[in-house]
Amino acid sequence: MSSLSNIWWWWEASNQKDQFTRSLLTLTLVVLVIFWYAWLLRKSRNQNPPLPPGPRPLPLVGNLPFLDPELHTYFAKLARTYGPIFKLQLGNKVGVIVSSPSLAKEVLKDKDTTFANRDPPIAGRVTTYGGIDIVWSPYGPQWRLLRKVCVREMLGNASLEAVYSHRRHEVRRTISYIYSNSGSPVNVGEQTFLTVLNLITNMLWGGTIKGEKQHSLGVEFRQVVGEMTELLGKPNVSDFYPSLARFDLQGVERDMKALFLRLDQIFDSVIDHRLKMDEQGIKECHDFLHFLLKLKDESDSQTPFTMLHLKALLMDMVVGGTDTTTNTVEWAMAEMMNKQETMRKVQEELDRVVGGESIVEESHLPKLHYLAAVMKEVLRLHPVLPLLVPHCPSSSCTVGGYTVPKGARVFVNVWTIHRDPSIWESPSTFEPERFLNDRWDYSGNDFNYFPFGSGRRICAGTAMAERTVMYALASLLHSFNWSLPEGAAEVDLSEKFGIVLKAATPLLAIPTSRLPDKALYL
Ligand code: HEM
Ligand SMILES: *[C@@H]1O[C@H](CO)[C@@H](O)[C@H](O)[C@H]1NC(C)=O
Ligand SMILES: *[C@@H]1O[C@H](CO)[C@@H](O)[C@H](O)[C@H]1NC(C)=O
Ligand SMILES: CC(=O)N[C@H]1CO[C@H](CO)[C@@H](O)[C@@H]1O
Fold this sequence. Notes:
- By secondary structure, the protein is mainly α.
- It has one domain (64-521): CATH 1.10.630.10.
- The protein has helices at residues 2-5, 16-45, 71-82, 101-110, 112-115, 122-127, 141-155, 157-162, 164-180, 188-205, 211-233, 237-240, 252-279, 288-298, 307-337, 340-353, 369-381, 414-417, 462-479, and strands at residues 85-90, 93-98, 186-187, 397-399, 402-404, 409-412, 480-483, 495-497, 501-503, 508-513.
- The strands form four sheets. The protein has a three-stranded mixed β-sheet, with helices on one face. It has a three-stranded antiparallel β-sheet with strand order 3-10-7. It has a two-stranded antiparallel sheet with strand order 4-5.
- The longest helix has 31 residues, at 307-337.
- The N and C termini lie far apart (99 Å).
- Bound molecules: protoporphyrin IX containing FE and 2-acetamido-2-deoxy-beta-D-glucopyranose (3 copies).
- Protoporphyrin IX containing FE (HEM) is lined by residues 134-135, 147, 155, 316-317, 320-321, 324-325, 328, 379, 384-385, 388-389, 451-453, 457-461, 464-465, 469.
């Protein structure tokens, strides 16, 4: 007590009474401090419910040093140790990884409104004019407007139907190109990417760019989009230490900006060209760009739609639509190269439904049940967004009995769920037959199978993805037999994680024509 009494050094004790009061005050203070401390302890212990379990973080860096770039398999491994919900301390941010159907349902359905938010990484913000697009906008009226515009004017059934001729034109052009290369190896991913890109840009701005220029633009796009999705998937210091972001230590912002500027210039030149065409009264193109420009001119200030919003939407369609579709087609072809009997069954179905004397049309697609099962099985084994797009709760809430703090980055590991042996029989075998019974769909109602996500943030392009993947696969397999180059015994099916899951080795396969009438290839 004597050393504690020293805190009263400024209160000169001149008599006994003063000394007594002083001791009494000291005692009261000590008791108060003890109570306060006990209260704090109780509060922290009662931090109810607690945060999810997880590997012990190091001071300052947390679990970052141990992060494996193949995030989906790394997360799957940790889930085996820590359970279906676990936490990683990623610098200043908390990452929460969910890997069971019931917890996925809690996040994407029961607490959908809370989790329908995003925390855009630097790379995402740079490429989308500050995160003002559909993918990265927070849940709210702005996001709703953008999403509605895209679904109604471009990605819905009716609009898709209206521009079938564009898709047909591009797919036929690719088939004819592959035909002219019969017998030599074709890079399946590259050809598909060019087709899908042309198909999407055609839907976006019609025939504004044509011919030779279109091809060189396509090659450039593929490179830029590929690099972008790779950067988007890479964990980066600036994201985990927002206070360090302005130093851009790894140069992500710089690299991404350079890529972004190349696309931005392309958009600018297309828009310029269109505005000039409109001025000169050259024929009106009723495409998506036309609609967006009109929307911009009529925009009210409550939920604004500016030139930047317009370009951000173009970016979403180009970046979100191409790599995803392409990789699904490439995975399907790769899996079938290793399982010829599946490929033969698809071709038999095509011969039955389409026949050998005509070409595949989109109207055939609803009758191709076996091919649909192949696509579903590919999306099960290789969901192109294996962790969806990270969600971010707008307030702290409870999931699976644990607290998920506001602002956490929530990854739903759909890849793990799609390979869970308690749900799927021999989960790592490619077996389209399991989807023949029509029990599974990907509308987001089933939390055992949701390659497009679920809830408010479910993929906006599902209808288009489905059509494009089916149409491309049907045309490739109806027109050609495919074999591996001399010396290649099997296709390497290992995966490489960006934000998009790609084949680690690009698929090269040799086409030979299988339709007797050469006119069907022109
Ligand atoms: C096989 C092809 C595709 C797959 C597997 C796929 C899957 C997904 C997934 C898993 C999400 C995230 C859902 C979530 O956050 O929980 C997503 C979001 C999105 N996708 Fe797709 N997608 C595909 C193709 C497309 C296409 C072709 C387009 C458009 C042209 C598109 C546009 C979008 C957009 C705009 C979002 C953001 C939605 C939002 O945040 O509100 N996707 N997609
Ligand atoms: C769009 O078409 C697909 C099949 O062609 C159908 O299953 C789906 O219900 C349609 N969606 C709407 C909104 O009409
Ligand atoms: C295509 O492959 C199948 C099965 O391998 C074979 O029976 C058929 O003759 C091939 N078609 C042509 C035109 O080579
Ligand atoms: C954790 C990490 O280092 N992530 C990546 C950040 O971005 C650069 C590229 O700009 C990558 O090389 C790093 O691997």
